[in-house]
Amino acid sequence: MSKEPSDQDGQLYTLGRLERLRTQTGLAGAAFSDMHSRVDKLLREISNPNLHDIANMSYRVELWDKYALHIRWTVAAVGHIYIAQAAFDRAVKEWPDQRVTLRQGIRVIQDHDPALGKSR
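RE: above sequence
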């Protein structure tokens, strides 16, 4: 003979589920609070005036992926063309079989593309 659950059993089950939900919500809140404090700390570090001003580093030497579709790595970000040119020349010597560009914003100043067999 099977015993049917009583209303009291259903209430206890529901209360148990609510307690588990409350516990999980508390854990999620603690994790969010910890994440919030870590992000806030990083944002305060970024606002430090002693950090380098990457926005003024307008020349970029970039190494491209093997299909030359996406930038794989920014080799150098500098604010002076002569230093950027030296970084470009060194990058071409370091990775002669890879596409390397020297750009200022969207303007390509130099492009070493071995797939096309030329540098421009």
